[in-house]
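note to self: dont lose this again. the chain is below, predicted strucutre after it. 178 aa total, dont forget to put it in the shared folder this time
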Amino acid sequence: RVDGETGHADVLRRTRKPGVTEQQQLGSARWKGHATDHRGRYLKPEVPDRQRDQRHVGSEVDPLGADPVGNLILGADDNYAFTMMRRDRQPYESGDLLGGTPAEKSEAAAGYVSFGGTWSFDGEAILFDIVYSLFPNWIGGQQKRLASFDGDDLILQTTGAILMAGKTHRGAARWLRK
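---
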């Protein structure tokens, strides 16, 4: 589902065929086949360019930057791992894996999202049951992401706004299958 309210349309713009609306393209790209057909590893998330989409200025943020790096693994055993981070995260001065100053820890966590557990597909969305997460509030809960495909690219979209860094964010990312 792509509409003016979600702000995810620009994820699809670069590949839209002339004369085909975003809604038609997304509808034709719905998850085809059984969920097992789409298990695998996805890399290099591409996020919408909100600078070009004036509908979201002041209301949404891209807390991980315009060019995040990440990895999504949808395992054959129904387990998954999701990691996405800002590319420009700074190393700790001490080099201590579990150390760092309070400011270094805060900055590192502010640019990183990671969670994992088991996943399923309900016909429209991937349901992520969360066993572990950098954000402890998600542990034991579920996150739902609308899912569609454009070729081998997996397009995931949040079903609503998420509060991140004190501002609302409606997430969308195009993941490249590897």
